[in-house]
Structure formats: C-alpha cells, structure tokens
Design a protein that fits this description.
Blueprint: H1 5-18, H2 31-38, H3 42-54, E1 58-61, E2 65-68, E3 74-77, H4 85-91, E4 96-106, H5 110-115, E5 125-134, E6 137-147, H6 148-153, H7 155-158, H8 163-169, E7 176-185, H9 188-194, E8 201-210, E9 216-225, E10 229-232, H10 237-244
Parallel strand pairs: 3-10
Antiparallel strand pairs: 1-2, 4-5, 5-6, 6-9, 7-8, 8-9
Helix pairs in contact: 1-3, 2-3
C-alpha cells in the first residue's frame, strides 16, 4: 500500500536534512516550490512541511519561510550515583518537560503484577502515559505503572512533573533502579506521538524502581527516538571485580 504523498515528500526532505544536504539554518523550498517540484496541491505541500515541524527538524517563521533546526542529540547517564533525567538534562543545558497523555487506575497485566510484587488484594495500579520533551520537542513516550496508593496520593504532581523526582520530593525514597535497554519499532501510536515514520527504530529503556526496603514501587518503559536521545553508562574495574568475587 503506497504511503500518502505528504509523507513521501516529508520523508525525502527528512533524508536530505539528516544527510546534510540541507544544513542547520538553511531555508527549505517554499510551499510553491514543493508544489511544482512534486506536482502536488498546496495542502499536500503544507502537510509535508507540518510533518517536519512536528518531528522537530525545522521551524516555520511567519513571512520568512521554513528553516532547518540544529539537530542536537543528548545523552542520559545511567551511571551511579543516580542522576534523575530532569537533573541530567539541566546539567547539559537542555530544558525538559512532560505532557501528560493518560493517568488512570487500571487492572495491571500479569507481568506488571509480578514485577511490582502485588498481593492478591491489590487489584489496581495507576497507569501513566506521558511525552518527554527536550527543548519542546517530543523525544520519548513513557509508559509507567505506579503503586495505587502512590498514584492516588500524588496524582496532581505526577501529571505535571517527572515521576522519580516527584516521589522523592514527597519523601518516597528510591534506593535503586534496575534497567534494561531494548529496541522496537514505532507503531501507529508512538509514530504519531513522536512525529516519526511508522516502523522507525526506537530505543526502549525498561526500568523498575525500588525503595530502601527493596519494595518495587514503579515500573515502566520509555520508548525514545535514537536520533535525539542516547543512554550512557560507566563501568568501573572495581565494580566488575566485586561481581566476580
């Protein structure tokens, strides 16, 4: 099944941007030029440009045109001591924010019940889906399951701020986080949220947070754009020696 014309055009322009044919600060062809080049309507040309704007690749300046944005890739450190996402981005001079998409009480899947070590009488947890934005560009979709008592108590703050700092600021201490990195491809939902093509490779950061009493309280995954967000970890020799003893 052929893809819509506006997506085909924006994909071609996206490749030209990522390949350096259009450099940061350079102006893209106008709507009229795109109409002539691709033999399409003004609406199609406008939608193609809108796709690039939503992906954070270009910025539209009224009366001037559309210009390529500088493509900055940032790195989130997973090394100890724990640095929460918001603090790490601030340290790099990047503004981070969230956009709450879903926050509701749900009956958890069996895998989540097992991970959070729920007892038989714990029938509900809170599910939150949120967009993580860096410099106002969506870079990740975060899907989090939170213990019901915490979700209910701190719902207002959790809808507006990052999960881990919110809990710690309210006295819910996080002692450790276990994490794995996987990969997947953008489905229709994540494609729309992140402004990437359907099937685009995504990095999946899976995590579970524990209190000092070894109680899991939050588990989830962040599906992120590999062109905008990377993860780093520092492994020290003494850490490896400690594991082998």
């Amino acid at each position: 099944m052929p893809i819509p014309l506006h997506l085909a055009i924006s994909e071609q322009l996206r490749h030209q941007i990522t390949n350096g044919e259009f450099k940061p600060g350079e102006q893209l062809p106008s709507e009229h030029q795109l109409m002539l080049q691709f033999a399409v309507s003004r609406i199609t040309a406008r939608r193609a440009i809108a796709n690039l704007v939503n992906q954070g690749l270009v910025v539209s300046q009224r009366g001037k045109g559309v210009f390529v944005k500088e493509q900055r890739k940032v790195t989130y450190s997973l090394s100890s001591p724990m640095i929460f996402f918001e603090a790490d981005m601030l340290r790099q001079g990047v503004t981070s924010s969230i956009r709450n998409l879903v926050f509701k009480s749900v009956s958890p899947p069996s895998t989540i019940r097992q991970t959070l070590q729920l007892s038989p009488n714990q029938s509900e947890v809170y599910l939150q889906k949120k967009l993580l934005l860096l410099n106002d560009v969506a870079v990740a979709v975060d899907i989090t399951y939170i213990l019901a008592n915490l979700g209910k108590t701190y719902a207002k703050d959790l809808k507006q701020h990052m999960t881990f700092p919110t809990l710690e600021q309210n006295g819910v201490l996080i002692d450790r986080i276990t994490a794995t990195l996987e990969s997947t491809r953008a489905n229709p939902e994540t494609s729309e949220y992140l402004g990437v093509p359907l099937g685009e490779p995504l990095i999946v950061y899976c995590y579970t947070a524990y209190t000092p009493a070894h109680q899991p309280i939050v588990t989830g995954e962040a599906l992120s754009r590999g062109d905008r967000l990377a993860y780093s970890v520092e492994i020290r020799k003494q850490d490896l020696q400690g594991r082998s003893e």
